[in-house]
Amino acid sequence: MERNLNKQSKNTLEKWLICLAILFVLTAISMPFAISMWYKRYEDYSGLAALGPVGDFIGGSTMAFFNLASILLLVATLIIQRKELRATQREYQLTNNTMIKQQFENTFFNMINLQNEIVNTMSHNKRSGREALKLILFDLWARTKGIDFEQDEYDIYINVKNRYAAFFEANENNIAHYLRNLYRIVKIISNSDMEEHEKKNYFGILRAQWSKDEFFLIYLNLFSEDGMKFKNYVKQYDILDIETKDETGNIILKETVPFDRKYFFLYEKNY
Known about the structure:
Elements: H1 2-41, H2 51-120, E1 123-124, E2 127-128, H3 129-144, H4 153-191, H5 196-207, H6 212-221, H7 228-237, E3 243-245, E4 251-253, H8 264-268
Antiparallel strand pairs: 1-2, 3-4
């Protein structure tokens, strides 16, 4: 509202300056006629014999008004040009922001396509594409199936970490590129200049590409040596969409998630 009032006051100032300039121009033009009417009124033209002084008088009396009018018009012109320059700058900034967002989206969706291509080129036990990925992730489930969750939490963490490391080593040719590209996508979104709600929207688009088994793979990767940086982004933006708030506003983990809740303590701890 304050910005609109300032804009209206500036527009009013321009109008007043132009009106005053016009008034001074009209005054300057009317001065010779006013002087002539003055002499005619008293039917005394004797003073016109000295045309030189009269001309000097008229020139002196009119040029002051012309000069004032010129100054006022110059000031009004400068104000108008300043407004036009600001409008041009805003338009340029808007265009620049649009181009930056378009460039980001091109990069983002190209990397999404690359992620799908990586999945399509996977090969495992004579299977390819998502069928191969499904078998690879079944291996991950099988390796983590026998974990004893009754033992100490740190021992569980070491157990999970070692089993995931063995799984990763056995399937590195297929999943290493997958995870690296996924990390790059997350990093690109995080490093962008977008608002937080826009970033969450793109994380949602990325998350929509994952199957339930992929969620589990990405989750366990967070606790590997190579996944610690990824974990920071996941917790900062809740990329896995597993957080919510309780009645007091504290962040807690959701009841329904794409994997076993027994692994949740890993997310809450900072081993």
